[in-house]
Amino acid sequence: MKKSVFFGTLMAAGLTAGIASATTLEDVKARGVLNCGVNTGLVGFAAPDANGNWSGFDVALCKAVAAAVLGDPTKVKYVPTTGQTRFTALTSGEVDMLARNSTWTFSRDTDLKMDFAGVNYYDGQGFMVRKDSGITSAKELDGASVCIQTGTTTEMNLADYFKANNMTYQPIAVDSNAEGEQQYLAGACDAYTTDASGLAATRAAYADPENHVILPEIISKEPLGPAVRHGDNQWGDIVRWTLFALIAAEEYGITSANIDELAKGTENPEINRILGVDGDLGPMTGLEKDWAVKAIKAGGNYGEIFAATIGESTPIGLARGLNAQWTQGGLMYAPPFR
Amino acid sequence: MTSASDAPDRGFRLSQLIYDTRYRSLTIQVITLIVVMGAAGWLVDNTIQNLRVLGKDFNFGFLDNRAGYDIAQHLIPYTNDNTHARAMLVGLLNTIWVSLLGCATATVIGIFVGVLRLSKNWLVARLMTVYVETFRNVPVLLWILVAMAVLTEITPAPNAYKVNPATGEANASMILDSIALTNRYTAIPAVSFERSLGVIDTALAPVSLNVLAIVLVLAGAIWVNRRLLAHASAVQDATGARPVTWWKSLLLLLGPLALLLAALGFQLHGPTLKGFNFTGGTNVSNAFVALWAGLSLYTGAFIAEIVRAGILAISKGQTEAAFALGLRPGKTMRLVILPQALRVIVPPLISQFLNLTKNSSLAIAVGYMDLRGTLGGITLNQTGRELEAILLMMLIYLAISLVISGVMNLYNHKVRLKER
């Protein structure tokens, strides 16, 4: 009897459940706010200031997407996520998109049921050590204690690198960049390893950045990019093309200074299509015609965002390198808007 | 005239299910069962539905895949080429290890503090009260973090032990030339043998026959010693005079062990600073010590209260009777009060052991890789198998807890009041 009751209720529940959920775009529009998963605090990429206002390279992408979808770059709720919680936060629907220096890998794209919408920063894993340790190469780290953020690809790269070079190490697991900084400064580890951009950002926040060196070895490829849930292609397209719009804007010289002028119409048909003067690109993916104008106005084009948050004039001081436009010898390349 | 007590038989009506006390309890039980089943069914169905929407399946195949990450503290051999299942086992053993040591230390602390809190010495009793109240009323996570902070902040980095070529001396020096306290670990001498009897290679871990031999000799010595003591008691019962046994006991317990260790070429290997870290000895990580200390001191405060309650539960007449027989206070406590108090102490003690074991999952806060850190942390994250990993982890903690309470219930059965 117990069994039949059980299966009966199971079946009833099965029939009533399964109400079709709305698409992410509809959810975001209905909510009026974009939930964006960001780092818990990495200066230059995503960090709140004393007033709780978030800023940074990844944050700028959240703002651009919010501007494209909702027309207002301030309509973003930033959800700080750790290396451990970020993917669960995305797949469970707690955030609509993840802009949190996450590496695009095969298994994350397939098995973890996410879609990477592109690459906003080409990075690689490096090591930071104290200058007075006298170490100049990662090959000298045999036997060292290394602080490592748990739940990241860097954890695996580290194991592979030391194995390939026949060296040993003591992993010191930390949960966030802040904890890693603290452990490294306290001397609990000889070296701190994470993405080279993260190391530069971390070092910039120190009181004595000149006493720390980032070793020349880059031991992995870390294409960092925004991620969305697998299965909602429309939403994936919106995030992907917002990023491409920012990249293309730099290529075609659309800046936050001249965009109002250009949005009135120009000689260049590609610019006209991007800015919605010509054609119906926006409506094709469920957005307004001037979606890209709003997105670029939010924080400028890709180059402007880079320069303002992590570029060479900022304390973090990262060179464009691989992240320059393809016309400048970099890897930033937006497909045609047509 | 018919009697008022004769209820007219009008057959079964539906309203009887609620208003008739004969059926009411059955009705309530059936409704409760349906609600519980419905809730469980909804949960299972919701999970299946959501997994399907996400396109995820439910299987434990990931446990056989290569783990690919390193674990700092492992009791059994482990490299990043081992499987996730092995990594889980490493974590599980770390959990069991810190829980066992924690339970033992917490019990010792608890008994001492519990007894001392009842002391007539004003200062001692008040000090113990302060200890119990501070540790009991602050979350255990904070105590673990405090212990970790103290260990990392007051101890020097390993390179402080390096001899400075300019001055010819190091900033820090080792205790007795064999123990080095650092902000990462405490380096202590390791045990090694010149001669080995061989190694049995089990699937779990290689077992050294030397260790096995030592355990066997020790067990044998303890058994013989107990026979000796039993014999002494028998002689005492028969003649009234107890034969002197202490030197025989000492010889029995230590003699064979010393002989065996000498035969195996036992030696202690002091740690030496080589490169970044100490090698050659055993490095006990600060994360482990902090977790162990935090858990022991916190749970010890609870156990102290349980012990105090147990002692107070024993009638004062027992103490007075023991004093009347001429027993000193210490012996009164050890021979008369505590054995009786155990009956009251053991049941709540089981819950404290369970609490300590479950609280050990806070290990991640200090980077000690327990079950939560390996299976529920890195493995979960790298494979994306949240549901499987969490369910498996819950199942394992449940099993550990059931084993602890099973063993402790057996002990409780042994010490409880024998009723005839």
TrEMBL record, chain A:
Keyword annotations for this protein, in alphabetical order, are:
Signal, Transport
Give the matching SUPFAM superfamilies. Periplasmic binding protein-like II (SSF53850)
Which regions form coiled coils?
none
Task: Show the Pfam families listed in the entry.
Answer: SBP_bac_3
Domain Solute-binding protein family 3/N-terminal, chain residue ranges per copy: 33-262
Q: Which domain of life is it from?
A: Bacteria
The family database entries (InterPro entries) matched by this protein are listed as: Bact_solute-bind_prot3 (IPR051455), Solute-binding_3/MltF_N (IPR001638)
- Using the record, list the residue span of the signal peptide; answer none if the entry has no such feature: 1-22
For whether the record's keyword set contains Signal, the answer is: yes
Q: What is one process in the GO biological process aspect for this record? A: amino acid transport
The cross-references to Gene3D superfamilies, in alphabetical order and at most eight, read: Periplasmic binding protein-like II (3.40.190.10)
Q: Which PANTHER family match?
A: AMINO ACID ABC TRANSPORTER PERMEASE, AMINO-ACID ABC TRANSPORTER-BINDING PROTEIN YHDW-RELATED
Give the protein family. Belongs to the bacterial solute-binding protein 3 family.
Protein name according to UniProt = Amino acid ABC transporter substrate-binding protein
UniProtKB/TrEMBL annotation, chain B:
- Write down the Pfam families for this protein, in alphabetical order: BPD_transp_1
Q: Which GO terms describe its biological process?
A: amino acid transport
Query: Is the Endoplasmic reticulum keyword given for this protein?
Result: no
Q: Name one GO molecular function term.
A: transmembrane transporter activity
Q: Where is the ABC transmembrane type-1 domain?
A: 92-408
Q: Which positions, given as ranges, span the membrane?
A: 23-44, 96-118, 130-151, 203-224, 245-268, 288-314, 389-411
Q: Which UniProt keywords apply?
A: Amino-acid transport, Cell membrane, Membrane, Transmembrane, Transmembrane helix, Transport
Record keywords: Transmembrane helix included?
Answer: yes
Give the matching CDD domains.
Answer: TM_PBP2 (cd06261)
How does it sit in the bilayer?
Answer: Multi-pass membrane protein
Q: Where in the cell?
A: Cell inner membrane; Cell membrane
A single GO CC term for this protein reads: ATP-binding cassette (ABC) transporter complex
Record-stated family: Belongs to the binding-protein-dependent transport system permease family. HisMQ subfamily.
UniProt protein name: ABC transporter permease subunit
Query: The organism's lineage?
Result: Bacteria, Pseudomonadati, Pseudomonadota, Alphaproteobacteria, Rhodobacterales
